[in-house]
């Protein structure tokens, strides 16, 4: 498989406080990869560093081209969508207005309309709520809207930060099924940061485990899932 994203010797900082210590990993095109770790391990910082939202050093390459020095907006335009923790929908705008905003950098009006309908196929509840203000949606519906809005960019790579946070287990299962479908059918490469390690490992092809800003384990998700240390620390059995 072709490598889409390469991260080498990544260090990241908040002011004088260092959060990442020399992370190196890669994502194959079309893969679905999960980054696991406890709160404060550096998972969110890793996603922010890829998008140049925190101060960092090291090399990050997307399709062989360096991302260093590029603005977050420029990185998004390259085809990298970031869905942050907390969803971040525009609460006073309708569902459809949020989706249209996700495609604001695009000029292909007919294709945008087609993509909105495709989002409604992925997330039927959003079609039912298309005229409803985003702030009145349930937490699960807002998370679906955040993912759909990111997909309106037609990204090649999607970074998801704790998509299951605060959601009921059945909603989480449905959301992860949709993410798997998007990965397989739309060929979107996905890197997901997730506290629900068991579900993330069921979904993913590859997995990395991060502790205190360092990657301490990596491999096939199925192998990581059966690792005794991972089971004890993250899977609870």
Please describe the structure with a list of short key phrases separated by commas or semicolons.
237 residues, alpha/beta, Rossmann fold, 6-stranded mixed beta sheet, 28% strand
Summarize the structure.
Helix 3 (95-102) packs parallel to helix 6 (139-151). The chain has 237 residues and is α/β, with parallel strands linked by helices.
Per CATH, the class reads: Alpha Beta
Relative strand content: 25-35%
Structural class: alpha/beta
Overall average residue pLDDT: 92
Side by side, the strands of the main sheet go 6-7-8-3-9-10
C-alpha end-to-end distance: 34 Å
Low-confidence stretches: none
Number of domains: 1
Oligomeric state of the chains present here: single chain
Helix-strand blueprint:
Blueprint lengths: L2 E12 L2 E12 L3 E5 L6 H8 L4 E8 L2 E2 L5 H6 L2 E4 L11 H8 L6 H14 L1 H5 L10 H13 L5 E5 L7 H17 L3 E5 L3 H7 L2 E6 L2 E7 H5 L2 H8 L2
Parallel strand pairs: 3-8, 3-9, 6-7, 7-8
Antiparallel strand pairs: 1-2, 1-4, 4-5, 9-10
């Amino acid at each position: 498989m072709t490598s889409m994203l390469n991260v080498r010797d990544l260090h990241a900082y908040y002011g004088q406080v260092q959060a990442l210590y020399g992370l190196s990993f890669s994502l194959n095109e079309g893969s679905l990869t999960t980054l696991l770790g406890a709160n404060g391990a550096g998972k969110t910082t890793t996603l922010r560093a890829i998008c140049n939202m925190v101060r960092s050093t090291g090399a990050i390459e997307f399709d062989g081209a360096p991302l260093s020095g590029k603005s977050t907006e420029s990185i998004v335009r390259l085809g990298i969508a970031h869905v942050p923790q907390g969803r971040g929908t525009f609460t006073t705008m309708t569902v459809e207005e949020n989706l249209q905003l996700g495609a604001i950098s695009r000029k292909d009006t007919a294709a945008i309309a087609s993509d909105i309908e495709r989002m409604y196929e992925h997330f039927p509840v959003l079609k039912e709520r298309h005229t409803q203000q985003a702030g009145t949606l349930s937490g699960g519906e807002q998370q679906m809207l955040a993912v759909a809005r990111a997909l309106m960019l037609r990204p090649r790579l999607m970074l998801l930060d704790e998509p299951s946070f605060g959601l009921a287990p059945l909603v989480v299962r449905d959301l992860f099924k949709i993410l798997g479908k998007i990965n397989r059918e739309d060929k979107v490469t996905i890197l997901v940061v997730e506290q629900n390690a068991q579900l993330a490992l069921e979904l993913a092809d590859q997995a990395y485990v991060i502790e205190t800003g360092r990657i301490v384990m990596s491999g096939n998700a199925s192998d990581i899932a059966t690792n005794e240390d991972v089971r004890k620390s993250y899977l609870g059995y």
